[in-house]
Every structure is written in structure tokens, then in C-alpha cells.
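Example 3.2
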Amino acid sequence: GSQCTGARGEDLQVRVPVGTVVEDADTGEVIGDLVDHRQKLLVARGGEGGRGNIHFKSSTNRAPRQFTHGTPGEARRLRMQLKVLADVGLLGFPNAGKSTLISAVSAARPKVADYPFTTLHPNLGVVRLDTEHSFVIADIPGLIEGAAEGAGLGIHFLKHLSRTGLLWHLVDLAPLDGADPVLSVRAISAELGKFDPELLDKPRWLVFTKADQLDDDEAAERVRQAVAELAWDGPVYLISSVARRGLEPLLWATAEQLRARREAAAAEREAASD
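Structure, written as C-alpha cells:
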């Protein structure tokens, strides 16, 4: 008889890292992709309150005893996975020099050693060329043949490359086991295609590493032979992270590539809004 309405229940909010993809665990539907700071996503609506007897009062029924129950809120099982936000993703076999490179060009300090699988989780590094040019690199555990079927560690982290705008495919020019760099490139490409064909459509640059372990002429000749055998028509770089050789051209070209990509995306958004 007080004609009051109960207070609404408080929203249940769960904080997650930027880059989290939220899916319905039962249907696989992607509910949302949280890519912005403080972005909110409604995943399940709360229930509706019932109607008390005051709502059934009329001129002929001054003291109704009718009421309706409220309805329960939605219930969903969710699956959340984090995909890191990076501009550049590093690809390559274990021990290809990915961690050494990210250490050389950024403040990131991943574990570096002369044995495979040193990197056990994604590492992020920020490259700052000047006040106007910077980008983020993601280093994931190295891939091996059979990765798409679950071999090794890298396949579990390939999802982190889906947001990148450019892939650096690192190739060890002087592997300790004498492996053929051409076969290494083809093997990684095959694993990418098996895991997610869209990753093969991303811009990918070949970056031959450990040039300091060969004399200049031999290093250049190995690169020439590999590029010819692969019929590679994309950008190619020869670097030594340890000796810091060849890094500046790679970094500045990357910054320009990413700038052009951002401008093209902005132009597309503007055209779509007209």
C-alpha cells in the first residue's frame, strides 16, 4: 500500500584488458571486441521487475490483490580471449632472432638464449624513432612444422598476429643446424595458411637475421639465392640485431608503411560516412 517501487539492481561489471574478444561459449558468436580504453559491452540484460497490486487498482477495485512476478535476467556462458594490440608481428622458427631483435629496437627485455623456445609468451616492445614515429611490435613463440596441428608453442599465440598491420618474417641466415632458409620460409608460410589463410594476406616482409655471422658478400649472396628461389617480390631486409646493422632502414620503412595504412583506413572511414 505504500506505492513504492523497489530499487534497480546494480550492474555487474567485469574489467578486462584492452584487446579482449568476447564470445558466446555455446554458439561461438562474437559478441564484441574491446579495443578501446573504457569501452563497455553489454553481454546479458538484467531481468524486469514485477508489477505490484497498485497497477491493477481501478474505480471498481480499490484494493486489488493481483500482482505479476518479474522476469529473470539473461544467462550466458562466455569465452574471452586476449589478442594483443600491436602494429607489427614477428614470425619465424625458434631461434630465428626475434627476441634479440625486439631487444635491440625497443625497451622490451625478453629472455634471449641460443636454444629454441626461449620465448614462452608474447612480448611487446615499443619502437620510438622520434616524437612523431613510433609503433608496437609483438614477439610470439617460434613456430615449427606441424604447428597448425598443435606441435610446439607458437600456434597458441598466432591469434595475437591477427590485429597487426605488418608481419616481419625473420629468417636465420646462418642456422646452427645448417637448415635451408628457403625451406624455413615455406614451412612457416604453410603453417600460417593452415591456421588462418587471412594471415597470409597481410603484408609480410622477409627479414634475414644474424648477418654478422657471415662476411658481407656471403650474406648478400645467400639472400639473393633465397629470394630468387622463393620468387619473392615483397620487401627484403638483411640485418644483424647484435651488431645493430640494417635496423634503421627496416624501422623507418615500417613506420612509413604503417602511416600509409592508417591514412588509407581513415580515408575509407570518411568515404563510408559520406
